[in-house]
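Training component of the fellowship. As part of building independent skills, the fellow (R.M.) carried out the full modelling exercise for a liganded target. The chosen ligand was guanosine-5'-diphosphate. The inputs are recorded below so that the supervisory panel can assess the work.
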Amino acid sequence: MGKYYCNSDSSDRCEPLDVKPSPIASSYNERIRPVLDAVENLRRLNITKEGIQLPTIVVVGDQSSGKSSVLESLAGISLPRGQGICTRVPLIMRLQNHPLPKPELVLEFDGTTVSTDEENVSDAINTATEELAGNAKGISNTPLTLLVKKNGVPDLTMVDLPGITRVPVHGQPEDIYDQIKDIIMEYIRPEESIILNVLSATVDFATCESIRMSQTVDKTGDRTLAVVTKADKAPEGLLEKVTADDVNIGLGYVSVRNRIGDESYEEAREEEARLFESHPLLSKIDKSIVGVPVLAQKLVQIQAASISKILPEIVKKINEKLSSNLSELEKLPKVLTSVEEAMTALMQIIGLAKESLRKILLVGEFDEYPDEKQMHCTARVVEMLNQYSNDLNGCTESDSTKDFLMDELKVLEEAKLIGLPNFTPHTAFLTLLKYKVNGISSMPVGFIDKVWNYLETVVVSVLMHHSEHYHQLQSSSRRSGQSLIAKMKENSIKHVKEIVEMEKLTDYTCSPEYMVEYNKLIAQQTSFFYQALEKQLSRLNLEGIGEIEVSHSLLRKYPLMLEQAFDLKMRMTAYWKIVLRRLIDNIALHLQFSINNLVNKDLAKEVVADLLSSHGGGIERLLEESPSVAAKRDMLTRSIKLLRESKSVVATIMDKISSYGD
Ligand code: GDP
Ligand code: MG
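Fellow's submitted model of the complex:
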């Protein structure tokens, strides 16, 4: 016997009920009703949507084994039945014992509710089925719910599922078997499901597909009850079949005889009672395992036991879900209802954005973006600066070995003037300097442009991040970030261009390094001329310059200007180092200064100015909530309400259950 059986101390509850066509309901039903109602409420609250499974009796069986007939017998109403495929969608049947003069039947599907009666329920189900699964022979997984309130029915909720067919009949899709199997498995897989396996007495149970399926999810059979139908058709050997239990049915077997043909429900019960009472073979089967009333009683008890067993788990799950939803709701930004609140929120966003930017742009703290290398700005900017320095030092203008003395000689020739020949004319130096600075002038501008482009992505992303819950602020934030950077960039470019122009205009340094370097270089003059002119070497090495190629034709062409040219070259080489260093240091300091201003001064001003401008829409815009946040808040609020209701529903049942002990 299965674990869902009633306690041995309350054996009276297990007695087969009066088999006359009288109400199946007993006092036991009166006690189980509130529990069932509560579970029904949970079901109606759609708590399964929250990932909480409810105990359900799932009716499975091969096609035409008598599933619908069994439900019909339990409910005392006519369901569509017969040969071929009749049940094409899951039918959730809720039976409620109710002292009504006339039964009440309500069909619910896809959000619609249809009232019906016993005469028309069959047609109503067929119509609804056609609506859900088409008028061919296809099936669908959208359930129909049939509420039956009737005097004398057992309080049960069961799901009737399409029967298993191996071979598609004409008009059925090829994969009908898999479709049906998927639906059945979905319903019987949860541990909370009780499997009511409907077996026809006319077949060998071991060959039943439904047995095979239920065994894959319930190996020990602990949550499987078997109903053997058509006892009237195959009485021979039935006793042996239900007592041998070859197929592991943990909750036992109940043999029944359903309504045949045009019999009324009452007539069917009378016939059934007579059959098991008087048939020479069937009467030998123990009365505690025959007849629809016994089946009803067992199902009610199993259902109650299952619900009681599962409730603590449900309570736990509801609590978990509730607290996670509550904390998620907590994390959502507050709804802003006044200009004061909006102002505070805006200041908070600006404050947070400033703090983030201060960390990543000025201090080099990356705790907010541990894994996003792109946001490690101090490091990235230094990398760019190093690259810029390498580019400057590696460019043609910085290569002193190239066309050795050529430019110097050309410039000197053009700078000829009346005067002593051994003075190096200042104009020649300046011309050469201007020429070289012009050559590199695009590099500082390119560098500053690149840095600000990078900073734009960073600043915009930080602003967007801190305003993510305020969609009204997003476009404004993006815009103010972009326009702020554009201004900063423009200013920087102007500044850098000025620095470049200054280098062209004046040759000056107070750095003693210049003289040290120049003296070192010019000291090689005698040795250079000796090697180049006397020894006629065409390649030689100059310290501080590198290996140079000597153009003898050039040296021959300008014999008088050679010393001046060499002197000019050495001055320029020494001075160029100073120029490059200034171009790097100055710009680095300027950049740092600008970033500092951006974070500490300009950002807040710009964000506020944009929001208050005509396209910003004013501070009131903050009072509108983002549709996605609103939807999420809505969803969470509804879910929390549902869970709270469920919780109180469950709490009342728990109280009732604990009082059953008395
Ligand atoms: P389902 O496909 O599993 O839902 O099976 P149905 O409930 O539609 O029944 C298939 C056929 O078997 C119908 O013609 C029923 O009348 C018949 N049937 C069901 N139960 C019994 C029974 O206990 N005795 C007899 N003789 N026929 C039954
Ligand atoms: Mg059926």
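The panel noted the following from the submitted structure. The chain has two domains: 4-8+24-322+649-659, 339-624. Residues 67-68, 81, 86-87, 163 surround magnesium ion (ligand 2) (CB under 6 Å).
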